[in-house]
Amino acid sequence: MKKTMNGAVLLSLAALIAKILSAVYRVPFQNIVGNTGFYVYQQVYPIYGIGMTIALTGLPVFLSKLIAEQKNKEQQVNTLIRVFVVLSIFSFLLFSLLFFGSSWIAKGMGDIQLIPIIQSVSWLFLLIPLLTTTRGYFQGTFRMMPTAVSQVVEQVIRVAVILLAAIMYQSLEWDVYKMGTVAMNSAWIAGLAASLVLGIALLREKLTDEESSSQLAIPLEKVSYTTLTKRLMTEGVAICLLSALVILLQLVDSFTLYKGLTYSGMSSQLAKNAKGIYDRGQPLIQLGMIVATAFSTTLLPVLSRAFSEKKEIEFIRSASSMVRITATFSLAATTGLIVLMPYINQLLFGDRSGVRVLRVYMLAILLASLIGTYNAILQSQNHHYLTIGALLIGLLTKWFVNNWLIIKFGTLGASLATVLSLGLILFVIQLGLPHTLKKEVAKNRIVLKLVSLSLIMAIVVGIATTVVENGFFNGGHRLEAFTLTLIGVAIGITVFSYGLFRLDVLTIREWLSLPFGKKIIRKQVK
């Protein structure tokens, strides 16, 4: 458990740095290109997001499980080579679909001018085999550093290219679509940089282990291409789809929201502006899901081993701890963002437009985080079809409900449809969880305690920030929004942390497994 948590912390730190960069670049980017330019970028972003989910979390998680099942290093390497071959074919097909089908995709989104932007992001998919196999190998052997470093490098270079595109848009007076094309080229440029980092890490390991590997002369059983392809299309696809869940829902919005707004009578320019405001929620959701995503990523190899070795008690104990920890952090993030949304929105994007829409959207953090954790548990038990079925039900619900709700409520309807779809997916997935796990997770009335604690935190933070804003500020300035956000975060963390310990939400074992858990316990005892 301690090793798993350390890996989760490392990936959390890397993800935090990457997501902070992702959130920070959106501030000057949106300010320079405006809501319409943001709309152009965000329309195609889900395609990039799906590619990065496959390369960063989806398939590497599947491969980490596959690697953990192998008996020795030679089998691991042999398996990775065969996976690389299969993924190369798969990636080329995806690239061809996007590049040569870009006009069809753009027409489906209702904006034919998006064609070159879609084509520019398609090149990223050719890098998926290398990014996936190397990250999966390192995570499967419980070494998270190469993945963490490559993730940070990738994000730094990507952000630099995007901001350069925004500056050139302003100085050279480009139109928003040319800007979007250059900005999306950041996907494959950053992917090349990450591939270089991972390739160097792999080369160093090969040179270090050359002598020991040469001593292996026993013929080893090889996994067939048929078996690998079958597992990739079931287990791998299930993990990828659930890892990219929020992005897939955003992809549905790319095909339906803009067209739905114009169909309801809104002008093209106003619809693009409204979609740009709605898309502000995406980086905030990603930021709120960082910790939960990292725990789910490092959880799968450990649970797979416990399940394959028939250590049921260890499996249930580890899985229940992960669920409780994920629920705790994701609920705190969801509540905090909902309460502080007016200030965060103004701080990051310059105004408070769409606060109600974004508040509803933030509920996706809690639901998607729990879905990710439950999915990791089911994947470790080789339950793939239930998760795929749940995802399909959710996506179909989002697609059909979206059109009706958008026409009736505008962008608020899209937020409601997302939350409804995620809730339905979570309900279906829970049906497949072991009864002993459900019982273990629910013990000590954790749900009631977490909900009560979140309400208390929301009330205290809401009252405190309102009093400070009305008593000391005039409103309308980013500096004031920044100050109010800091005050709210400080109060929220204090109230929630104190309540966690006093209400015994987490067990002593769970506290000790967390970073600085021992120090926190000592301070609370004193």
Report what the structure shows.
- By secondary structure, this protein is an all-alpha fold.
- It has 24 helices and no strands.
- It is globular, with a radius of gyration of 23 Å.
- It starts with a helix and ends with a helix.
Give the helix/strand layout:
Elements: H1 2-69, H2 73-100, H3 102-109, H4 115-122, H5 128-140, H6 145-171, H7 176-184, H8 186-208, H9 210-213, H10 225-243, H11 245-263, H12 268-278, H13 281-288, H14 290-308, H15 312-349, H16 355-361, H17 363-380, H18 385-409, H19 411-430, H20 435-442, H21 446-472, H22 478-502, H23 508-513, H24 517-525
Summary of the model, kept short:
The chain is built from 24 helices and no strands. The protein is an all-alpha fold. Helix 14 packs parallel to helix 17, helix 15 runs antiparallel to helix 17 and helix 18 runs antiparallel to helix 19.
